Known about the structure:
It comes from Treponema pedis str. T A4. Pfam families: MTS. Helix 6 (128-143) runs antiparallel to helix 10 (204-220). The relative contact order is 0.16. The protein has a single domain, classed as Rossmann fold (3-Layer(aba) Sandwich). The chain is built from ten helices and seven strands. The chain is of the alpha/beta class. A seven-stranded mixed sheet has the order 3-2-1-4-5-7-6, with helices on both faces.
Amino acid sequence: MNEIIKNLKKYSPRSVLEFGFGSGYLSKLIRQVYPNIFFTGIDKNPHFIKDNITTLFDEYFCEDILSLNVKHKFDLIIFGNPRVPFWWIYNCYTIESYTKIIKKLVSLLEEKGSLFFIVKTYKNCTQKSEMLFKEYQDFLLIDASEKEYPPNLTEFINADIIDLTKTMLTESGIIDVDVISIKDTEKCIYPKEPCKSAKIKRTPKNLQKAADLDQEINRFGLSYGYYNILTAKK
């Protein structure tokens, strides 16, 4: 993730919060770029709290970001993922819940602090391999998922999250916002058996769809496509 590292190096924070550190994919990059910062992590899923990841942090919390109560604020808050949709990582299914998250993050910023939001986007998705990745991901995360989602999920996931975030930040008094689009050039890796690790409803229709996608992936391969980095300064 050379582009993420390059853009992180534009900042010189003393304190950083990573919201939703998960498996530690970004945590390792952050600690690599900023070896001497005070590093805080938060993730509400206890299944992701692993010793080999938590040692990267000076402090970490296993709770919902909306309930986080810390006395200090942060020079830089980093969140998002270049390959997985925001709504799925953070269990955020409505525009209302997303608004609450953004407002909370802004409230945790030091004066002149910055947000660094990495967001998966399909806006520049033109090649077959990129469109196939989106179809594959939507199938596993939505169409065939065992999880029951609220009826208005579609409204949120079909919204332009970049424009939505800009509007929310402007309403919070933050107008110094920048967005860059980055082509993900790393090799796309996916499960050889799409159904094996995903919690999908194993209906004949879903299993056939998975088999068809698997066959198509073997023909065309997959490409992650693009992601955006949105930065905002308080």
